[in-house]
Amino acid sequence: MLKYPRVLFFCGFRLLWDYTFYLWRYARHPERTSIEARYARVRKLIHYILDHFRIDWKVEGIENLQALEKNNQCYLLVANHVSDLDPLAIVYLSEKPISFVAKKETRKMPFIGTAVKALDGYFMDRGDLRQSFEVIHGVEERLKTGHCSYVIFPEGTRNKWPETTGVAPFHPGSFKAGMNPNVPILPLALYGTFRPFHSHPDYKRNPLEFTYFPAFTPEQYQRIPSTELAQKTYGLVADEVAHDKEIDHAFLAEGKEKIPLGKGPVR
Length: 267
Description:
The chain has helices at 3-28, 35-50, 62-70, 86-93, 112-118, 129-145, 176-179, 218-221, 226-253, and strands at 55-60, 76-79, 98-103, 122-124, 149-152, 185-191, 206-212.
């Protein structure tokens, strides 16, 4: 657990400062500051924090994300969910504003809940079908107007045992948030985001694997049902996660996680 005192030592004051003077204000009165300005502040803080977790980034297909951002296109990002670190890592890699559909319990989390509010995110009650429809409709409207992009985790919940279990089936309803407003749907497979929170003080690096697939365009999905699109996306993500697990296990078996960052390439 030595990593947590270290991170708190280096980031505690910055986190408290930004939370008190920016995030809390953004969450209460988002209309007073543009989404671009709010996102830039939150992303800068996330970069500052994650850079102290000794993360070894392995990102493939980043050009698929950059192509959408270059064209100023709003999109729906769908990804598997393995850790509370997932949203932070996604923001870390996304230059243009992106927000989230989070479970209602996230609202009470001091930093994460406030950050989601500050970025115009939504909190979904998975046990309330009517409220879930309202959330999806809200995302659709904001995607239509080009407000910002959104992230949905179509598994519906976080995988609590990512090292031993596979990706859970994707809920087709999640995809309608992007299909109804006819925006690109960007699949993302991620793995390893649970590792920085593990209590391994001897780890010098924490490997994270991210793979962005080419986005599904409206022309590609407009004639198929959401169930078929969900199955296609699930196949891409599940296969990539299984592949990442093999790479990740080999990485750890060779002891490369104990090689300090900045000492030369190990991947």
